[in-house]
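Researcher: Please translate sequence to structure tokens.
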Amino acid sequence: MVSTQTPLYDFGAPAPDFALPGVDGRVWTRDQCAGPRGLLVMFICNHCPYVQAIRDRLVRDVRELTALGIGCVAISANDATDYPEDSFENMQRVASEWGFTFSYLYDESQAIARAYGAVCTPDFFGYNAELGLQYRGRLDASRKEAAPPDVRRDLFEAMKQVAERGEGPAEQIPSIGCSIKWKAE
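Model: Translation complete:
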């Protein structure tokens, strides 16, 4: 398992469009996932210990961000052939077990992950109402284990600011996690 950090990013860059199958049986597009005040695109997977450590916080934060007008979507792009725990069927199971209130989509071709420049799980891309990138940081200080309950909620605070002002914070701490499991080319 390779651990990696998200790079600095081109803030204001537009959110790439997508049309991907969700665990609910629907095909979802970027515009269907966006909320009136912005969009949070999360690249996650099932097997990554960094994602497993924050799933409960992710569910909590998405619920609160949705109430603020931020649409939220998670995308798994890992190669399920080499990582069967990340298969579509297992995505359905995990979404049900954890009570995901957001769409959980499968990027089997990995084209959308590449279009976004995703590098790890979890990897967060926060956009304003005009779908310009405003946040590319971490959820909180969690690593392979959850941080203490009273830790600063970096992602939530940043996206709350995006919902209220249309801009993210000037200072952002990169996310860290397992590298995306790319298919052999």
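Researcher: Any highlights?
Model: The beta strands are 3-5, 19-21, 27-29, 38-43, 70-76, 103-106, 120-121, 123-127, 133-135, 176-179.
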